[in-house]
Amino acid sequence: MVSTSVATFNHFTTDVQQSIEFFGTARGRLGFAPVQPVLLYVTGGLASANVKLSGAITNPACFGFCGATSTSNYQTGWTVGGGLEYAFAPNWSAKVEYLYYDLGSLSQQILDPRTPGAFIAQSVEFRGNIVRAGVDYRFYGDDSDY
After folding, report:
1. Domain boundaries, the chain
2. pLDDT value of position 44
3. 3-state SS assignment for residue 17
4. Residue 76 Cα distances to 12, 28, 50, 106, 129, angstroms
């Protein structure tokens, strides 16, 4: 929540929330094995998500909400990162991975229905960092690939 004062206007408060409702990637991976059974890799590709931006304006002169709006959009962008994968048993590996993503921005205007022409413009950038760990099982081959 942000509280703002503007000359000639009443003190007002804006409440803005942003969320990612789902997130997915389609990536390639390129790596090398400096020692068996360790794989170091870089990864990158397409990122996509359904993002949402909600906002409201309140101030004492409005006796409650002066305006509220919500905008959602399917956004596409990019992601890049890297990781380490370790084969600890035949067909089994564990990995740790880092990703940075950029889905662009989403903008909206909150209009005040009691004051014609008055609005607050909001813009949010959907960028972030993800660190994750996992265990993989390969259904084919043997551990000689590592």
Report:
1. 2-145
2. 98
3. strand
4. 34, 16, 9, 12, 16
Strand 2-4 relative to strand 12-32: parallel, antiparallel, unpaired?
Answer: antiparallel
Residue with tokens 């794989």: 39
Asked whether 16 and 125 are in contact (CB, 8 A), the reply is: no
Question: What is the 8-class DSSP label of residue 68?
Answer: E
Q: Answer for the pair 90, 142: CB distance below 8 angstroms, yes or no.
A: yes
pLDDT of 112-128, one tens digit each? 777 777 777 888 899 99
Dist. CA 68–CA 62, nearest whole Å:
13
pLDDT (0 to 100) of residue 121: 83
User: How many other CB atoms sit within 10 Å of the CB of residue 143?
Assistant: 15
For the ranges 13-22, 54-63, 134-143, the maximum mean pLDDT occurs at: 13-22
pLDDT tops 80 at residue 72:
yes
Largest CA distance in the chain: 74
- Residue 120: the pLDDT is 79
Residue 45: name the closest of 30, 66, 63, 33 by CA: 30
Can you tell me whether residue 60 is helix, strand or coil? helix
pTM for the model stands at: 0.79
